[in-house]
Amino acid sequence: MNKKRQLKISFNSPVILGFTLICFLSLLLGYLTKGSSTYTLFSVYRSSLLNPLTYIRLIGHVFGHANWQHFIGNIMLILVVGPLLEEKYGSSNMIVVILSTALVTGIVNIILFPHIRLLGASGVVFALILLSSFTSIKDGSIPMTFILVAVVYIGGQIYNGLFVHDNVSNLTHIIGGIIGASLGYVMNKNKMNRY
Question: How far is it, in rounded angstroms, from Cα 156 to Cα 147?
């Protein structure tokens, strides 16, 4: 008897899929509240340190997006790169990358840009892009792909930050990339030391 194989859906990347779901729900909530929830919970800006929401926003800003196009632009890259990284480095390391990126970019924004509201997952996107270039590190050598990615992405963000005046936080992209590269180096070094 010839049994037909049933196609199953696998929950292959719980952190990346969970992150995507939270971003999607925060976007929907933003539409339902006419942006109020996005401003209150999913954006970071300077506010009183006595306000408990200040600390929620330090992490929550990576879940917020201004509109559907902003969401799609970030999430598509995260869904392409993230599952491969989560498979290689593990779910707990992906949580560390996301939370570190959120916290550092949030604090930097509050300190350097007190009157600018930051939201979106682009810092996380850049962290994952730079982290992905470390997946082929061997014997302590730096992969040429990492050098090319760093030059193209980080160099492009520096150029845009200096010469293009838009509503994009290039510093957030650069910081996200540095965090991804740094954590990629540490995680790969720790992996090599175990063998």
Answer: 13
From 24, 66, 60, select the one nearest 42 (Cα to Cα).
60
- Cα distances (Å, whole numbers) of residue 43 to 10, 18, 102, 155: 32, 19, 11, 26
- Give the CATH class of 14-194: mainly alpha
What pLDDT, on the 0 to 100 scale, is given for residue 160? 72
Please report how many Cα atoms fall inside a 13 Å half-sphere around the Cα of residue 65, on the Cβ side.
24
pLDDT tens digits, one per residue of 67-120: 999 999 999 999 999 999 999 999 999 999 999 999 999 999 999 888 899 999
Mark the ranges of the chain whose per-residue pLDDT is less than 50.
none
**How far is 53 from 55, CA to CA, in rounded Å?**
5
Give me the residue spans of the domains in the chain: 14-194
